[in-house]
Write a structure and sequence with these properties.
By secondary structure, the chain is of the alpha+beta class. Helix content is 27%, strand content 24%. The protein has a domain at 3-143 and 257-278 and 334-398. The chain has a 5-stranded antiparallel beta sheet with strand order 3-2-15-16-17. Strands 6-5-10-11 form a 4-stranded parallel beta sheet, covered by helices on one side. Strands 1-18-4 form a 3-stranded mixed beta sheet. Strand 7 and strand 8 form a beta hairpin. Helix 2 packs antiparallel against helix 5 (119-132). The two termini are 15 Å apart.
Length: 399
Amino acid sequence: MIPDIRRRYNAAFSVERYQRFLHSVNSSLRYPADFKVSETPLFIPAAFASQLLAACDQIIAALQTPTYRQRSASALSAGYAVPHEDEHTLFLQIDFAICREGDRYVPRLIELQGFPSLFGFQAFLDLQFRQHFDIPAGFNFYFSGLDYGSYVNVLRRAIVADHDPEKVILLEVMPDAQGTRIDFAATEQMLGIRTVALDQLKRKGSRLFYEVDGRRIPIERIYNRVIRDDPKLKDSAEIAWLADDLKVSWAGHPNWYYRISKYSLPILHELVAAEIVPPCYFVDQLRGSYPADLNQYVLKPLFLFSGAGVQLEVTGELLDSLADPQNYILQRKVQYAACVETPDDAAFAEVRMLYVWQRGEAHPLPVSNLVRLSKGKMMGVRYNRDKTWVGSTLAYIEQ
């Protein structure tokens, strides 16, 4: 997006340099990256970064309205609402496609989530890029004037708070088998907490414990990474206890995974400027009166993740055949800009803005970012298996 910097980076790139970078990424932590890490970061000009932040401000303002609060409650299915919901989400991620209008780039909302993203891994990735490639002066991966040290302090305050790190756990379903496990390893190293599998939890009354070397350690706070729709869960009984009144605090209350999710998109379409949030509808509320240009829409299941169940070719017959249309949204497609020059085809980019919303704060803090590059129909790695200069990366922001 900044032509002279892109040209310099591409000219200095070599496969050997990239392989050294990958080796370091995959050997420095307890786990390797189980997903494609791109050959390049994205370089974002200050003016476009301002557009991203302004769009986020509009979305965040809408999330705080009584209308949104009331309507998002319907996202919590009966029996799964967890007690002691926080006043607002602790973590917020907002995904934008980079599109083009005339001669300028513009952000368009794709998805958002009140759930943690790869906060640990992205900071680790920044260090790796800076170690192996020439990142120009005056560009930063962090927002809000943060650097690595102050970023870690923000995460420590959010996740560990005033607890003994030994009594704070990162909770996940089968963490050793998760595609994001490298982030767990980075978080452990950064904050000194332990990753605990769901089936390793012990319970006595309203208290939870885990065991290490024969010691039973009480759990006071949970950095929650469990998603109840995770296909690795054997059945819902495995997490039914979440609805109990437990003596733990949550670093990321589970309810916000649903309150701020794809479920939010049709609501935000009504509350935020149309140029930021493309048209989006709950399928069941269309009652068969579908948009005339259905080929310009994508069908998404509400609560599956990582692109599962997304349909790019939408017809009225497909919509009519849905057994549970209340669990789907119809979202207008956006035209991604081919904004990243590579040695062959230009790549499309999607920027995830990462926020931390500390307890008692009026507004979340933008802290860092995640970027996905693609040359296929969708952003996921599965759609770009035969491509280079695609995958997961980060953005360096012009200061």
